[in-house]
Amino acid sequence: MKNLTDSFVSVGHWPSAGSFEFNTDILATNPINLSVVLGVLIFFGKGVLNDLLDKRKQRILSTIRNSEELRRGAIEQLERARVRLRKVEIEADEYRTNGYSEIEREKVNLINATCNSLERLENYKNETLFFEKQRAINQVRQQVLQQALQRALGTLNSCLNSELHFRTISANIGILGSVEEITD
Known about the structure:
184 residues; CF(0); transmembrane; coiled coil; chloroplast
């Protein structure tokens, strides 16, 4: 360490100015070389480094400004989207309310139509039952009448002899002949 400080402080050991020699003492020459290189780099590289740093600073500031503008745009879009969302929610509530009202109206209309259809079907059923009852009554009457006529004919045939039969036929022919004269 003493050699290092001696080489900076002691001027007596330096060779004369007229000759040129290499200093092979690495410890003494490296700090000098490094300080010279650093000095040259600082002196000449200061402008380049300042330019690089200024450009980097400008890019960072530009990026920040762009980010701020994008952020403001995103906030504006978000607000517009929120406004649209509120409008859509209001419309959805209106549709929902109107839809429920419409469903209730349709439900009442369907119930009324069903009741009317049931009443018509009930009337049709009652009319059908009435007509079927009348037809059944008429069929029974016809059957009773036919049976009564058959019994009467059977009774008449069993009670009538051929002479009585002949007189009855003649009387009926006479009645029919008089009915014809009246109608002419």
